[in-house]
Amino acid sequence: MTIARSWLSALLVGATLVLPAAARADEVRVMISGGFSAAYKQLVPQFEQATGHKVSTAYGPSMGTTENAIPVRLARGEPVDVLIMVGEALTGLTEQGKADKASRVDLARSPIGVAVRAGAPKPDISSVDGLRAALLAAKSIAYSDSASGVYVENELFKRLGIQEQMKGKARMIPAEPVAAVVARGDAELGFQQISELLPVAGVEVVGPIPESVQKITIFAAGISTKAVSAKAGADLLAFLASAQAAPVIRKTGLDPIAHPAGK
């Protein structure tokens, strides 16, 4: 990782390097969950242009049992070089021997936010009392089937003391962005990482939930233990963790995690 990151940093700050296609250009197969996807889609063309590598991508949740969920993809033997997903889920894959622990790099912190349909009134969720009142007043609430939704269902409602009141009107959404459900009017409030709410047309992000009940999700990346293009995959991880990538990551609603040069 250190060698890959140092080489790529030199390339990105203006060094001109001709890449012999047979020697250096590889296909990097990536599996990625939604929270980092908006930044990733903007950054991958820069990486491909700088390195000559080509990136192919499969999208799916970090956890769960839906057809496209990353653990399900791995279980059915889909090929992959790079995994980009919720850090806790990546840790689980490392413990199962499916991701190389030494290759892991944490990329960004992601807060949970709330969205409403575009044009709908925005509730005041700046305080815990305001968030509680908004949830009690809403007729329907949606949350994801990944890390943020698991927290909302199992911890947030309980911490707010409204677990019973949420039964029957709050539901987990599998295999679809929560914001899409809100945009078509099937839920008044939607909870998911802000980076997953922002790209969806037809909704407005109210803001993050209050800090005292917030859960920050870490998005991380690592190399598959079955990677064919491990070196090219390491180059991609180095680029995504670089200072050059940070402004794009920040613009998509994430807080990039700084890494010392050469680390």
TrEMBL record:
Q: Which domain of life is it from?
A: Bacteria
Q: Which GO terms describe its molecular function?
A: molybdate ion binding
Looking up SUPFAM superfamilies in the UniProt record yields: Periplasmic binding protein-like II
Q: What GO terms describe the biological role, i.e. biological process, of this protein?
A: molybdate ion transport
Specify the signal sequence span: 1-25
Q: Which UniProt keywords apply?
A: Signal
Q: Pfam families under this entry?
A: SBP_bac_11 (PF13531)
**PANTHER family linked:** BLR4797 PROTEIN, MOLYBDATE-BINDING PERIPLASMIC PROTEIN
Name of the protein: Extracellular solute-binding protein family 1
